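Database export, one record per block. Field names are fixed; values are copied verbatim from the stored entry.
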Amino acid sequence: MKYVLVTGGVVSGLGKGVTASSIGVLLKACGLRVTSIKIDPYLNTDAGTMSPFEHGEVFVLDDGGEVDLDLGNYERFLDIKLTRDNNITTGKIYQAVIDKERRGDYLGKTVQVVPHITNEIQEWIERVAMNPVDGTDKPADVCVIELGGTIGDIESMPFIEALGQFSYRVGAGNFCLVHVSLVPVLNVVGEQKTKPTQHSVRGLRGLGLMPDILACRSTEPLEENVKLKLSQFCQVPISNIVNLHDVTNIWHIPLLLRDQRAHEAILRVLGLWCVGKVPQEPKLSEWTERASKFDKLKSPVRIAMVGKYTGISDSYLSVLKALLHASVSLDRKLVVDWVPSCDLEDSAAKETPDAYEKAWDLLKGANGVLVPGGFGDRGVQGKILAAKYARENNVPYLGICLGMQIAVIEFARSVMNLCGANSTEFDAATKTPCVIFMPEGSTTHMGATMRLGSRRTFFQVNNCKSAKLYANANYVDERHRHRYEVNPDMVSEFEKAGLSFVGRDESGRRMEIIELPAHMFFVGTQFHPEFNSRPGKPSPLFLGLVAASSGQLEHLLQRSNSTMSSPTRCFPGTGAANVYKNKVMNGLPTTYFGNGSSIHI
């Protein structure tokens, strides 16, 4: 097993996750099997209880792991399926060591950070790196490890020590360290400054780690004399210094690395760049085509994103990526209009009239409306108003998780005249609880107690839009993260009033997908389809939303029907296992960016 460690220096937010993902893409394009591990030095066991304001979205894996958003980047870029163990946190490591101590595994020894914590980190990495992630039963050839935070952070010190020991443990030729740093330009001087990177490398070396490759972030391409200076003072060969300057879209990053022969530098360090061992030249034609296509898109499609975390785009990162995948596939330039749900409420008209007017202008100017998942009652009334606007004006609507639940609440209030209809999450004493707490949920613990991970949804109506978008599938497997559900005792009343529950779980009592049959596109899902979207295979429901918002839905549905003429079963994702499953089950041959209220992607 070969290991590539990606660290960061100077400041956070440099794009270590995208860099690590792009390195993985490059190595995979060379014919190597690649897996990824993300190390987060915080004490939380996982990301499940962390606020999106503080840490961005919580990404959910097939096994129910609630993990750092960077694992979403790994899955999207590499088209692999990771597990909760691919996200290492300080909390997990200390919990594992304490459990061993309580069992008596350390035979009376004094348990310390060194060697017990550091050994646990190394053993965890070695164990997880061997797990197959590409749908086959074969382990990876290379494991890309990203160390979260910045070199010098106190909380990351045990990991730095462990990784220093690990590099010696696996030996030369099996470990490559890529250090991502910043080369800023001071406006007053106007030249690229190398001193921050020099200090960052010095700090890294002082902690026992030597960078093999420098990945330098900058706004513009690095000047040659700057590279020479970095090489001299950081003691890194100039051929091992790569520049990651700002680009129009992140799909260019693997191409930037390839053009600077970064794969050669990495493979040399790993002992793979020699006669008979060179896998192949990286094949990135799909990435090249996709990046080029993105830059040429002209016709816009505007999607109003109505939520409570609109101030930080990372809070909805997977939703944004899924929209991007769908819009590029449909030859449309995506424009996301951020609409804070609180600003749509009647109270905002009195308290912040300008924000109220702006929010409604954005909503009414959009081609489609998306209400993503969320928790808590802040801004819920605004989301309900957005769903009502979309329903009454035949505007394409996609509600995800909470977005589906508030669509049900709005339908109950406006169409069924149940004025007190609500979710018990927002009003525990409501007399019309159309959304309720799931019976199996925990009322005492928050972490890892929701309905999590990949679950199966069975279509109840063959000719509904959702089933057609999933190529006439009998069922689909999608990822969940919720503790409230539509009240099954009220389903018959809803259906009599015209709301169709076209997807349910295996018991038939848990509602998974809703549709309004007479509406252009009004769909709500209890699951999160964004987590399975990939650049090469967009989520079907996001395709439906963007297609409906750009006048292409009819053509898309016809194309989906012609693809599969008989009922099928759909396994989202383009990994080897899912491609194989889809073919076998269906009888086929088996031979960075934006600010303000709008974001242009």
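Remark 1: The chain has 21 helices and 23 strands.
Remark 2: Residues 565-569, 573-601 have pLDDT under 50 and may be disordered.
End of record.
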